[in-house]
Structure formats: C-alpha cells, structure tokens
Amino acid sequence: MESWYLLHCKAQEVTRAEWHLANQGFDTFCPRWKIQKRLRGKKQAVLEPLFPNYLFIHIDLAHDNYTALRSTRGVSGFVRFGGYPAKVPASVVALLKERTQCYEDAQGVSNCESLYKTGTKVEITTGPFSGLQAVYDIADSETRCFVLIDMLGKQQRISVDEMDILKVS
C-alpha cells in the first residue's frame, strides 16, 4: 500500500533530488513558500522550500524498488524512527499541498492567487485575534489579506497574514 514518507536530501539539492526521482517514476512533493529576500541589494520574492533539505515521497515499500533511492543524486536517505522509514499521514501532505498550492505551479513558477474567495468563512489561528471567526474580504498583498470580524456590534476590517487563517467548514 502506497504511503507518504520523508526523505532527507543533501544540502541545497532538493530540486536536484526531485528531478532525479521524477525521472525514476516516483511521485514527490516539496512544499515551497514565497518569502522576501534581499538579492543584489533589492528586496525580491523568492520560492524557498518550507522544509529545507526534506522531500516527501509517495511509495509502496513492499512492492517498489526503493533501494535505488539511496544512490539517487541529492538524496541522503529516509528519515527513520526506530530503524523504520518515517511514515507521514496523507492528511498532513494534503494540508501542505492545499496551503502551498498558491505559490507554485508544475514548473515552479509563482501563480500566487488567494486560497480564499470573498465571503469565505475563516478562523484566525495566531495573534491577538486567535480563535475568532471572520469573513475573508480581499487580498492585501501577496502574503496578507483583509478579513471582517464582528466586534462591538459592527464589522471591523483587519489585515492579517494569509497563512494565519484557515477555512471553516
């Protein structure tokens, strides 16, 4: 049965490992996010791995030939606990895919659209408004958004980081 596992990659070689594993027919996932960095004296948005030097791989250890993974360029080996490869719940990988999909497409090019539509009910997860229900209003920038919170009998519009909200079912 296929499951998600975690691979440790050599420093700065996650992209190389992804490419070589894809050529071998393995399904991999490396969550990336957009951050601001100073490059050549200017602030620029760049895509960085969310977990540097780590890569998720979808594989069936009972049937797939995973011994070739150790000799794949860029791969150090499985992350192990008690001598066994660390299995990652599919729900964790699905959540990471959902939360990072706005940052890259198949070619790694940013297509940063909001995960939320105007009117979506959300919950604020961090900061002074943590735990409060809100309504998504509009994107403020590539990483921030405005939400509406009922406060003092009136809807108040506040700006929060888009990573600090979750869609309420």
Explain how this protein is built.
This protein is mainly beta. It folds into 2 domains: 100 residues, Alpha-Beta Plaits (2-Layer Sandwich); 48 residues, Roll (SH3 type barrels), CATH 2.30.30. Helix content is 12%, strand content 43%. The protein contains 2 helices and 14 strands. A hairpin with a 2-residue loop joins β7 and β8. The longest helix has 11 residues.
Q: What secondary-structure arrangement, pairings included, does this model have?
A:
Layout: E1 3-9, H1 14-23, E2 27-29, E3 32-39, E4 42-49, E5 54-59, E6 75-78, E7 80-81, E8 84-85, E9 87-88, H2 90-100, E10 121-124, E11 133-139, E12 144-151, E13 154-161, E14 165-167
Antiparallel strand pairs: 1-5, 1-6, 1-9, 2-5, 3-4, 7-8, 10-11, 10-14, 11-12, 12-13
Short description:
One of its GO terms (molecular function) is DNA binding. With 169 residues, the protein is mainly beta.
